[in-house]
Amino acid sequence: MHRIVFTINENNSYLSKVESSFEESNYLTVLHVTGQNITEVELVKNPHPHTSDEIIKECKDNHYSILILPKEDKLHEDKLTENGTSVFIASEHKNELSTFSDFV
Length: 104
Description:
This protein is of the alpha/beta class. Helix content is 20%, strand content 31%. A five-stranded mixed beta sheet has the order 3-2-1-4-5.
């Protein structure tokens, strides 16, 4: 199972647009994925708004395998990868479900 994280501002679960960086996001949507199937969806209030330094610890502590960010956000990509979290840069501001489809 993988835990895929999206940074969002809307409270629309996986229909929200991937549009904000980690430090600017209000929420994180966490998709629990087995194979290509979404088995659970979590909506989490961003525990560390306005700081990009905590994302590495947050991903490691919560076993987030993949972090999906908007194109313009290259947030600590090397450090995240070193700690076991892959980073996928979304090419457009689509909703999470469309971006997930692009990813898989």
